[in-house]
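User: Show me an example of a complex going from sequences to structure tokens.

Assistant: Sure. Here are the input components:
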Amino acid sequence: MLLIDDDIVGRQADLGSVEITHDAIEAYLRWAGDELRLRSLAAAPRPLEAPPTFCLSLYPGMTPKVDLAGDCFAMYGGHDIAIRRPIRAGDSLDISARITDVYEKSGRSGSLTVVVRDVSLCDGDGVEVVHVRERQMVRRRQDVARASE
Amino acid sequence: MSRPSTTPELGDELGPQQRLAPAADEIRRYGEAGGGREKIFSDEGHVHRLGLRGLVVPGPLLASYVEQFLYRQLPGWAVEQLSTTFRLPTAAGDLLTLRGAVTEDHHLADGARIVCDVVVEHPNGDRAVTASARLRKIDPAAGI
């Protein structure tokens, strides 16, 4: 049984535009503890190309939001990132997200509902630079508590 | 500064490499900075009521650990696709072991590709994260 109505499929969100700066990329490397890239920057600073997972820092995950029943909670289940070309300092990206699927899955701690979102990051010409497919897992609280006993 | 390129072969093992998950305070800062406003990143009472061991490490950070592992293990190759599945919550301060293997290699018209499977394990051997990445061979002068 789905824990969320599948009538949310098709819901969209405009997540705005973001200007990519050297500082933002460097801050990401620090946040992620990416010591190897930080060392290479210190040795030879140059125009920055962002690491592939930088895209995940540019928008709030699991958006558009969905309302959960009081006895449910949601966790980030995973994602597929497709890099069409690296994100670079100086890029201006428009970000949009859409709920594309809702389905039921059996997990180790019982049944859960998966909400799939497609997130598109496009350059100023509308060309997709990165595509992310996110999977959000929605579970009942008691299933998790029982599994951990 | 470019790093010498590697020539991985099918079946090559990657790692293992160990690293610590961030501490609880660092995870709280992630939530406060807008990375995730859910209570699993900020409220220890809430996560214990859910049956979890501690504040949950954000998925995007674990994905970055996987990518960093590949970047370190495979100089001269860049991730162009990364599929990540979070199988178990990782708690603040967990000691993580990353390991992987080269599972496919392809010689395409626009350059070489390899596929690597990576797992992130908890100290008890549980696989918290499984990932599969496709990497392309890059010009050593490009990228960071």
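The lines above are the inputs; the final block is the predicted structure for all two components together. The helical segments of chain A are 22-31, 35-43, 141-147.
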